[in-house]
Design brief:
about 10% strand, five-stranded mixed beta sheet, alpha/beta, Protein-Tyrosine Phosphatase, Chain A, globular, 12 helices
Length: about 250
């Protein structure tokens, strides 16, 4: 199946199925989608997503973004508003004591996000819905505006939890740069001139490898292991982690 889904009205819509794990298994197809803005999906694209089995849509955008560009609604999936921003500030404070985290503009922000209590609650809801998605051929789509930063962090957390190796996780993250070779696409369709300028700047900043390593560095610095982070920060117990693997791996 295709990794990049070039569907009309969709921005940076990608399939996560097929990625291998270190245990020798693979992510199931038609279970996980990551995306940017979905406010302009065409009827034909909606038909595709219905056939695909889309059931849950998790919207990481701010309430202002959701108001300006509301998700396309439908009777076959439910939209869950789940804003990552605004952060409470504790994550930024923690991130600034980590070594070498200022090498990457996005890396410092990503560290702030994964350590922030509010953002952790947002990603916790994502994992709750992932655990609910137990029926065959039904899927979860999670998205923000560009499908790079808030969505990128979500993808890192999911892929890492399912046992995908870091090289593959990094390759998936960097695919966004191919989707936005024309920066005008973001500036013209996603940036809110009256909105959060930090989000606007993030949308316009290219993905880089340091961003990925910054996320893992922050998690391991404060939680020891990724599994501890899932359990303590996102509320995903070891038993639930095994359940996730049963749901999403072949």
């Amino acid at each position: 199946m295709k990794r990049i889904l070039n569907l009309n009205g969709a921005i940076n819509l990608r399939e996560l199925g097929g990625y291998p794990t270190v245990s020798g298994k693979r992510l199931k197809y038609q279970k996980l989608l990551r995306s940017g803005d979905i406010s302009n999906l065409t009827p034909k694209t909606m038909d595709y997503l219905k056939d695909y089995g889309l059931k849950y849509v998790v919207d990481f955008r701010s309430m202002n973004e959701q108001k300006m560009w509301p998700d396309k609604t439908s009777d076959f999936y439910k939209v869950y508003p789940d804003p990552v921003y605004p952060l409470r500030g504790n994550g930024e404070k923690l991130a600034r004591v980590l070594p070498d985290n200022e090498d990457s503009y996005l890396g410092l922000i990503y560290q702030s996000v994964v350590l922030d209590k509010h953002a952790q609650q947002s990603y916790s809801l994502l994992f709750e819905l992932l655990l609910e998605n137990t029926e065959p051929d039904q899927s979860v789509l999670f998205h923000c505006a560009a499908g790079k930063d808030r969505t990128g962090i979500g993808a890192i957390l999911i892929l890492k939890a399912l046992g995908v190796d870091m090289e593959t996780i990094t390759q998936d993250y960097l695919l966004t740069n191919l989707m936005y070779e024309d920066a005008d696409v973001i500036e013209d369709t996603l940036n809110d001139e009256n909105g959060d300028q930090t989000i606007n700047k993030m949308n316009m900043t290219k993905a880089d490898v340091q961003s990925i390593s910054s996320v893992i560095e922050a998690i391991e610095h404060y939680y020891g292991t990724f599994e501890n982070y899932l359990n303590e920060a996102l509320g995903v117990s070891p038993e639930q982690l095994e359940k996730l693997k049963e749901i999403y791996l072949d």
